[in-house]
Every structure is written in structure tokens, then in C-alpha cells.
Amino acid sequence: EHWDSKDPEWIGKASMSKRHRFLTTKNLHLQWFNSLVFGLLEDTPGAASKADALAEVQNMKKAALKYVKTSDEGWSKDVGLYFHVFGHNSVNSLHLHIVDMQA
After folding, report:
1. Which of 22, 54, 76, 101 yields a CA-CA distance of 20 to 30 A from 41?
2. Is 17 within 8 Å of 81 (Cβ atoms)?
3. Cα 89 vs. chain centroid, distance in angstroms?
4. pLDDT tens digit string along 64-95?
5. Secondary structure of the chain: what % helix, strand, coil (to 5)?
6. Spatial CB neighbours of 17, under 8 Å, sequence gap ≥ 6
7. Coil, strand or helix: which one is 71?
């Protein structure tokens, strides 16, 4: 809704695309709060290694692309996957934007 609005009320607030979804995680550990620091807290008890962090991001990508491929919503093959870095987000938890770049 309002994703293509030219109304100043919606610019910068509405969805990024007609087809735009979030993928989040159930793991609420501090290390997953900011994508900029994934894998950098290895010395913190219970934190993921760099390899674990990379695997988590790869799994999120795989899940997002599977969703797009199996959805009956008509997604194009031109899909963008984006994380907001802390300080530039309005949702203070990890979420991957899945955006149909052709919609």
C-alpha cells in the first residue's frame, strides 16, 4: 500500500516496492542486532564465530530466495536483499528486506 505514492506524506515511509517482505530471526542475541558487526563478537560467551555468522546470512539468503521462488505473488527474478545497519533503521531488530526490483 502506498509503495508508489508521490504524496509527500508517504515518501520515505511506504514500502520499498509492491512486493516487499521482511525476513527476521528467532535468535534475539545481541550479536544479531546490527548486520555491521556480524561475527565480530567471537570472544563474547555464546557469540557466533565469523563462519557461523556467514552461514546465518547465507541461510537467510537461501530462505528469502526460496520464498520468492515458491510464492504465488508473481515475483520477478530481479530481487534485492538488504539489511539496514543500526543508526539507519526504524526497526530495532534484525530483518532482511526482500524487494522485487521490478514491481
Report:
1. 22
2. no
3. 11
4. 999 999 999 999 999 999 988 877 777 777 88
5. 25, 15, 60
6. 3, 99, 100, 101, 103
7. coil
Helix residue ranges, H only, 11-99: 50-70
Tell me how far apart the alpha carbons of residues 30 and 48 are, in angstroms, rounded to a whole number: 11
* Amino acid (1-letter code) at residue 14: A
Over its C-alpha atoms, the chain yields an Rg (Å, rounded) of: 15
- C-alpha span between 61 and 48 (Å, rounded): 18
CB atoms within 10 A of CB 100: 21
Return the amino acid letter for 70. Answer: T
Which residue, 27, 26, 30, 54, is CA-closest to 41?
30
What the block records as the C-alpha cell of 36 is 555491521
